[in-house]
């Protein structure tokens, strides 16, 4: 069985905080150490199994409930294997990934990609169009920025930012779904699917659990939470951290049947340079970290409704929240501004309960 990995504590100059976390009795989610896979009695004689793994540069937790611990363990192993497979296809940090091959062939030749990668690239194009460029998967060209855990602070020179920003252009990503190819129009362009691939990968893990007969499960990937079924006969409860004070919760939302709680923020990967927070949500138009919005939380039934949306709202700013709520009543929105104010849509106000 694939065992959970351990991870050293985060550097004090480079911190990671999950905006959303499950609120389950007897399960701790706040520490930085990875939990061992462990089982416990569930409701009405069922078993509950939970575990954590290092995936996609973050911690991925799975909680599953079912009649047999052996079945749950096998299903979780298979779910993690599938998520690792997809990560290997979509990570720009793995030299053999489809994304790395697209980047290497930029301006030269289209690259054949698996259907899973094509689906994520099409999702990236849709979000770029819907957000009028606020979301852009070609921010991978901004290679001078480095927010990976364990790396030293990397504050780029202004000239390097300007040079790389000229290569950021979603229109330069050319997809041929019929041929199954992806092409970046200019040499030096590069994809970074970090803002659009995680939710589909977590969703694939949840889908594997369901295919093995696990109807009640939750997957938490660095504060993005997907759930199906129930927890001990009740709705899953997911707490939303206050980005101004991460030790506090703003409240909790209930997820029953199926749902997703997605989050983005300047609190996840960042370092300080000359007293200013430099974080990983980059504005495609400036080549620099977005400003104004501290964190975004979204609650919806379907991953497709919110995938990439948090990053887009970080870039677009607080004024983008109310129009979005009017156009997408099925998505609950919470946005925290860097000045300390918090705005929530009517749907979020109705969904958010005391933690």
Structure description:
The protein is of the alpha+beta class and 355 residues long. The protein has two domains: 20-89 and 196-351, Roll (T-fold); 98-184, T-fold, CATH 1.10.3980.10. 25% of the residues lie in helices and 28% in strands. The protein contains eight helices and 17 strands. The strands form four sheets. Strands 2-3-4-8-9-12-15-16-17 form a nine-stranded antiparallel β-sheet. It has a three-stranded antiparallel β-sheet with strand order 1-10-11, with no helix packed on it. A hairpin with a 4-residue loop joins strand 16 and strand 17 (342-344). Helix 1 runs antiparallel to helix 5 (198-211). It is globular. The chain starts with 19 loop residues before the first strand and ends with a helix.
Name given to the CATH architecture of the largest domain:
Roll
Shape: globular
Identify low-pLDDT runs. 1-17, 25-38
Instruction: Provide the CATH superfamily of the largest domain.
Output: ApbE-like domains
Strand order of the largest sheet: 2-3-4-8-9-12-15-16-17
Work out the oligomeric state of the chains in this entry. Answer: single chain
Domain count, please report it.
2
The percent range for strand residues is 25-35%
Provide the structure class. alpha+beta
Q: What is the string of SSEs from the N terminus onward?
A: EEEEHHEHHEEHEEEEEEEEHHEEH
First-to-last CA distance: 35 Å
Helix content: 10-25%
């Amino acid at each position: 069985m694939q065992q959970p990995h351990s991870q050293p504590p985060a550097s004090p100059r480079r911190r990671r905080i999950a905006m959303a976390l499950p609120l389950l009795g007897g399960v701790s989610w706040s520490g930085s150490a990875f939990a061992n896979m462990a089982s416990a009695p569930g409701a009405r004689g069922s078993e509950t199994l939970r575990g954590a793994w290092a995936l996609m540069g973050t911690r991925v937790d799975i909680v599953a409930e079912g009649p047999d611990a052996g079945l749950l363990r096998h299903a979780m192993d298979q779910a993690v294997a599938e998520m690792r497979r997809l990560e290997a296809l979509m990570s720009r940090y793995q030299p053999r990934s489809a994304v790395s091959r697209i980047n290497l062939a930029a301006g030269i030749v289209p690259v054949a990609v698996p259907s899973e990668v094509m689906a994520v690239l099409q999702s990236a194009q849709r979000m770029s169009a819907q957000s009028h460029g606020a979301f852009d998967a070609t921010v991978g060209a901004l290679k001078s920025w480095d927010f990976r855990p364990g790396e030293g602070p990397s504050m780029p020179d202004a000239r390097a930012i300007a040079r790389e920003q000229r290569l950021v252009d979603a229109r330069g990503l050319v997809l041929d779904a019929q041929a199954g190819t992806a092409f970046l129009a200019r040499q030096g362009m590069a994809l970074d699917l970090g803002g659009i691939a995680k939710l589909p990968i977590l969703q694939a893990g949840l889908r594997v659990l369901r295919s093995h007969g696990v109807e009640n499960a939750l997957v938490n990937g660095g504060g993005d939470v997907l759930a199906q079924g129930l927890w001990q006969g009740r709705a899953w409860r997911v707490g939303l951290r206050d980005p101004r004070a991460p030790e506090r919760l703003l409240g909790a939302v209930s997820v029953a049947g199926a749902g997703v709680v997605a989050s983005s923020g300047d609190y996840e990967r960042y370092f300080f340079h000359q007293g200013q927070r430099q974080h990983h949500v980059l504005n495609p138009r400036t080549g620099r970290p977005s400003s104004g919005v501290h964190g975004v939380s979204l609650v919806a039934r379907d991953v497709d409704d919110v995938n990439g949306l948090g990053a887009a709202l970080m870039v677009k700013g607080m004024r983008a929240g109310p129009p979005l709520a009017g156009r997408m009543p099925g998505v609950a929105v919470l946005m925290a501004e860097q000045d300390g104010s918090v705005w929530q849509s009517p749907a979020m106000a109705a969904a958010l309960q005391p933690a």
